[in-house]
Amino acid sequence: MKFRPIASSAFALLVAGLPVMALADTPAPAASDPAASDARNDDIVVTAQRRRETAQNTGVALTVLSGDQLARRGVTNINQLQDEVPGLEIVPAFGGGQPQFRLRGVGFDDYADNNSPTVGVYVDEVAYPVPVMTQGALFDIDRVEVLRGPQGTLYGRNTTGGAINFVSKKPTDQLSAGIDLDYGKFNAFKGEGYISGPLTDTLRFRVAAITEQGGGFQYNRNTGQSLGDANRLFGKATLEWRPSSTATITLSAHGGYDKSELTGLYLFEPFQTKGYGVGTPGAIIPADTSNRATGWGTSSTFASLIGWNANSKPGRDNISQGVSLNAAIDLSPSVKLTSITAYDYFRRGELQSWDASSAEESEEFWYGNVRVLSQELRLSSQGKSALDWVGGVYYSHQLQNDGFYSDFTQSLGFTTNTSYRQYVDSISGYGQLAYHVTSKVTLIGGLRFEHENRRLRDFSTEIGSAVTFADGNRNTGFDQVSGKAGIEYRPATGLLLYANASRGVKSGGFTAYNSPYQNQIDAFQPETLYAYEAGFKGDLAPGVRLNGAAFYYDYRNQQVLGTVLDQQSGLIGRITNAPKSEIYGVEGELVLSPVKGLRMSQSLAWKYGKYLDYNAIDTSSLQGSVGSYTASTINYAGKPLPIARLSYQGSASYTAPIGGYALEAGTDYSYRGRLPSFLGTLYDLPGHWIVNANLTLRPDQGVWSIGIYGRNVFNAHYDLVRNYFLPNAKVAQPGRPASYGIQLGYHF
User: Is the whole-model pTM more than 0.85?
Assistant: First the structure.
């Protein structure tokens, strides 16, 4: 097993302090832990609507997973949530660090990282507005809440698809600590630990860290060299000060690095290399017969240009840092003031091989940094009354200095350097009311106004040493109103019926791809989503829970990756807007706890979408010459949107008492239907099943646990993304093959 000295040493320092905590009490199982469930319905407390309430009493479509569930299922990054949450897809663009979020079919394809996502990601109420910032490790998490549908009347940022909220574990009243170790196939190692407790009567702390090493399952098809080992280390620290019974001030800091190798791409079709400058095509590389095979190669010239070694593998050199201050003060028994101030920094360095070979047809190096400063002030009601309300203001300033080098030496005969700066300033006011007309009927209304100013500066694509842009500055923005209206009806104890209508808005932006054409970076418009949803949540009997929802989305100016016609330049690939489309679907969830120790859950989501008004350029119809290019259009009205229609998740666990010990056996499984590609059926991702299993032993009264696990136990072969470049290299990134391992835990 390979350990990096820095990561191992830093984690060892954290662990070294654990034995001194041996006298602390053993933490009780979380209420959401299936191992602690018996023949009853667990009520998980969430803050999805900015107040503490049970998930079953929340009139929105919501999936909640506890930190224990994430750990048992091996979820260590946000991308893996797509196997746990109905209707969620997270695709790594070209297999790299830019995730493309899609929830209930709402999302868009963009391999650059300068545009806002359709799904908002929050960590302890702090927004991560740039998708690539979300790729750190998940650890020391209390729960994750995934809300489906437009969000904006309760959140600092506005999204059309939904929100993913991560809630970290809090400092504890008593001294406690723990360590969890995981070793598995392909020399994969994960170590996680924490220390938590009081410093004074009013001050508490929590420190946690995680390191991940090894785990690479791929090999170079020519040299046999391995690829894919992790090398990441992240930590966070929290101070919670309670100067009085009416005030809680929390200071949090986090940081870490990711120097991991990437999971490479493999060739699912033969690759006819270009042989640029020779006058004849290059060699043909056969399609890979194993999705564990890959290839890469970096020329000394390109390596010198990006500042990496010529023998570097595809990999990352990312750093993330951040700090936040959350002050919650009771102004009166019925009014609370919350202030959240946050600053986050992310630096990216990522080397990719888009041609999956040693050919120099498309090697990419992404570089840059992001700085985000945000401030939120929120007033909310508390206590029981006929009217619950929340209102706030939110400001965010975002600066990106980004770019990427492309090595097209063999395919086009040159390298390019695309670079730019982008400033985004957003200020908004939002509020939501919930009026309890009777004990059974609640009316809900919310509004939001947002002003955004987005500025692209000094955009340039250098071809060789030639600068191609005379004017690389563009501006866009919007002033938009969004809102929500809803009704909740509780005809009986344990039964909630709800209906919501909402309007969400997603920012416009710029297509920041390598291009010499001036109008490629012209802004595309914001998109608007009118969402209509009805659902129910029911505890039908002890140990029986059934939830369901149906939705209809009226999509306006949907942002799609398309083509525009320029009479001077011809066809230009750019993000455009489809005037009108629609998505509709249904979701259901069944949870059964028929006897003590047994818990089963099943969830199913189906959706379908199509264009209603969209005329796209027919790329095969281009005619004319410089100054007089023409092309016809294709009417896409009635054609389906490229979204997966079906997803299914299930789990089952049983805990059996064995003479002073508890033995828990569990399995979870998921199916995602075919994910169509806008590139054509060759690039569709076929449907696939993933099945995991685990077995854990722990004493009834004790501090340790030991377990074994298997992930993707039937060794399903599936791809996370398929794409092509120029268009000879048809590539895919594989999902992880079957693996197994052992887990050790010690908590006191």
Answer: yes
For range 491-519, the mean pLDDT? 93
Show the domains of the chain with their CATH numbers: 5-747 (2.40.170.20)
| pLDDT single digits (tens) 669-686 | 999 999 999 888 999 999
| Sign of the CA dihedral running 112, 118, 121, 126 | positive
- Strand, helix or coil for residue 448: strand
Per the CB < 8 A criterion, the answer to whether 91 and 99 are in contact is: yes
Two structure tokens written together for 131: 């998708």
Task: Give the number of other CB atoms < 10 A from CB of residue 272.
Answer: 13
pLDDT of residue 275: 67
Kindly state the tokens that stand for 205: 């702390």
How many Å apart are CA 699 and CA 113, to the nearest integer? 48
Look at phi and psi of residue 187 and say left if phi exceeds 0, alpha if psi is from -120 to 50, else beta. Answer: left
Nearest 5°: the CA angle 421, 515, 398 is: 20
CA distances for 223 relative to 10, 177, 218, 689, angstroms: 33, 45, 12, 32
* pLDDT confidence of residue 279: 52
Rg (CA), the chain: 26
Is 19's pLDDT higher than 50?
Answer: no
Confidence class of residue 172 from pLDDT cuts 50, 70 and 90? very high
Q: How far lies 647's CA from each of 201, 576, 588, 710, in Å?
A: 49, 28, 11, 22
List, in order, residues 6 or more apart from 600 with CB less than 8 Å away: 591, 592, 593, 650, 651, 652, 653
pLDDT in tens, 251-305: 999 999 999 999 999 999 999 887 655 556 778 899 999 999 999 999 999 999 9
Nearest by Cα to 599 from 552, 668, 547: 668
Answer whether residue 698 shows pLDDT above 90.
yes
E strand residue ranges, 169-305:
176-184, 188-198, 203-214, 218-220, 226-227, 230-244, 247-258, 266-267, 271-272, 284-285, 293-294
- The two most distant CA atoms of the chain are separated, in Å, by 85
The larger pLDDT score, comparing residue 184 to residue 51, is at: 184
Given a contact cutoff of 8 angstroms between Cβ atoms, the answer to whether 78 and 466 are in contact is no
pLDDT, position 28: 34
Give the neighbor-by-neighbor strand order of the sheet with 719-725: 266-267, 729-734, 719-725
DSSP state of 355: T
- Angle, vertex CA 205, rays to CA 201 and CA 211, nearest 5: 165
pLDDT score for 12: 36
Task: Copy the structure tokens of residue 47.
Answer: 């803050």
- What's the CA gap between 313 and 352, in Å, rounded? 8
Burial class of 61 by CB neighbour count within 10 A (0 to 12, 13 to 18, 19+): buried
615, 633 contact by CB (below 8 A): yes
User: DSSP 3-state assignment of 507?
Assistant: coil
Q: Three-state SS for 242?
A: strand
* Cβ burial 459-486 (10 Å sphere, 16+ → b, else e): bbbbbeeeebbeebebebbbebebbbeb
Q: Can you tell me the distance from the alpha carbon of 495 to that of 59, in angstroms, rounded to the nearest whole number?
A: 11
Mean pLDDT computed over every residue of the chain: 89
State the Cα–Cα distance between residues 77 and 713, nearest whole angstrom. Answer: 20
- 198 burial class (0-12, 13-18, 19+ CB within 10 angstroms)? middle
Q: What's the CA gap between 31 and 686, in Å, rounded? A: 37
Mean pLDDT value of segment 513-532: 93
Rounded Cα distance, 129 and 141, in Å: 20
- How many residues are given for the chain? 748
